[in-house]
Amino acid sequence: xxxxxxxxxxxxxxxxxxxxxxxxxxxxxxxxxxxxxxxxxxxxxxxxxxxxxxxxxxxxxxxxxxxxxxxxxxxxxxxxxxxxxxxxxxxxxxxxxxxx
Length: 100
What we know:
Blueprint (H helix, E strand, L loop, with lengths): L3 H17 L7 H9 L3 H14 L2 H23 L8 H13 L1
């Protein structure tokens, strides 16, 4: 089952694909079915090409948002609003939470 984000990505990718081949009237599902019948190496290459074709402007926006988040977190530590713990303690807490 596709999530709405996956569905939206598929629509964008395949609408671009359809623009190059207007004579073809394949649905997204038909294209996906054909792609899934490829050998795994070919599917990896296709997936890589599709991901690379996605809008780099969105990638830049995501990069800026993560950079801002990193600076915010750094400032919280520097200002004493957040107390840091060692990596070993953090992993122990995660392991304990996962074990529940």
